[in-house]
Amino acid sequence: MEQDGTAIDLETSLGYLLKEAASALRAAMEDVLRPLGMTITHYSCLELLAQRPGLSGSELARGAFVTRQSMNTLLQHLEREGQVSRPAEAAVGKVLPTRLTPRGRGSLAKASAAVRSVEDRMLAGMTETERSDAFRSLTSMVRSLRQDGVAVDGD
Amino acid sequence: MEQDGTAIDLETSLGYLLKEAASALRAAMEDVLRPLGMTITHYSCLELLAQRPGLSGSELARGAFVTRQSMNTLLQHLEREGQVSRPAEAAVGKVLPTRLTPRGRGSLAKASAAVRSVEDRMLAGMTETERSDAFRSLTSMVRSLRQDGVAVDGD
DNA sequence: TGCTCCATGTCAGAAGTCTGACATACTGTC
DNA sequence: GACAGTATGTCAGACTTCTGACATGGAGCA
Q1: Are A130 and B118 an interchain contact pair (Cβ–Cβ within 8 Å)?
Q2: Residues 86-115 of B with CB under 7 A from strand C
Q3: Contact status, residue B60 vs residue B49, Cβ threshold 8 Å
Q4: What is the pLDDT of residues B60-77, one digit of tens each?
């Protein structure tokens, strides 16, 4: 039971460091979104819809890195609150294209500014080289990890 | 409501890319840990204890990037299952130093091997330059984001 | 000593997300 | 046309984590 070879050194593990960075970003985003009564998934959903109106629930789920069931719960909530709108029935297939309402756009404007301040702070603490290195290496990490079926929506 | 300046371009956002990479890693780890009946936080807790025996609940929480309340729930569960042990009362202060039991070490051995396979796959898909670039830029991101109070345990 | 401040452990309840399951609709393959 | 395979939306239930709150113990300071 004492094989040293199987242990993972957390101090030098790239996976641990990635988790640490993601955790720091998540905490910082939650800090600025909480005063607005918004969660990260909530914000992500609105931001995705602003950039690509008409996205389906499943597409939004993939873009926000949650299951389509979780996104469905959120969408029903947002629809009741009047932040998004969906047709009662699908025009074609089962896909229900979702769109932002003016109210949703208003919520997003505040949230987007708050999130931008976090991202700006993050970028301000990095050199130009570090930024492009981060972009390149993170892209490579994603590609490596996606080799087999490791989709978020795993059913 | 239509200020283009406030929107965040998800395609080029380093924050979004970081979340994407972390999500891919999380999904890959869950895929290999689920057959072992273990969650990521569960595994993280055991791995931390293996490297630094006697860690307190709060310290484990910080190391696993969850609140101390969540870690407490997990520790009570692990204690009932006989994977970790804690003294009934604190020797000094309120701190309850936690240690792995032989059973816990056994669980960790399997989990650690599984997680290592994921990390190896990730690293195998990256060049040596990308690995060191990732380490450097992620460290910089963490430092930038930690500037103000963005601790995991936020109370 | 007495006081304030901070860290820890814990309980209770709420919120978010997940897995499992089902019905339905499109796609391509024979 | 018939079929299997895949994708979507949804419901139900369970699990994990979170926020809020409280009590306790140590550290620093007047």
Answers
A1: no
A2: 90, 93-96
A3: yes
A4: 999 999 999 999 999 999
Please report residues of B whose CB lies closer than 8 A to that of A23.
Answer: 65, 152
Answer for B74: CB within 7 Å of strand D. Answer: yes
Instruction: Write the CB contacts of B33 (distance below 8 Å, at least 6 apart in sequence).
Output: B39, B40, B42, B43, B111, B114, B115
What is the number of CB-based contacts under 8 A between chain A and chain B?
224
Dihedral, CA of residue B25, residue B28, residue B31 and residue B36, to nearest 10: -70
Instruction: Measure the CA–CA gap between B19 and A18, rounded to whole angstroms.
Output: 9
How is chain B split among helix, strand and coil, in percent rounded to 5?
A: 65, 5, 35
**pLDDT score, position A3:** 43
Domain ranges of chain B: 22-145
d(CA B36, CA B47): 15
Minimal C-alpha gap between B90 and chain A (Å): 27
Positions of chain B with pLDDT under 50:
1-4, 149-154
CA A10 from chain center: how many Å? 25
From residue B74, give the alpha-carbon distance in Å to each of A5, A40, B54, B149. 27, 24, 16, 25
Is B148 within 8 Å of A27 (Cβ atoms)?
no
**CA separation for the pair B95, B114 (Å, rounded):** 32
CATH class of B22-145: mainly alpha
> What fold is seen in the domain A13-145?
Arc Repressor Mutant, subunit A (1.10.10)
Q: Could you identify the residue written with the tokens 């009932």?
A: B80
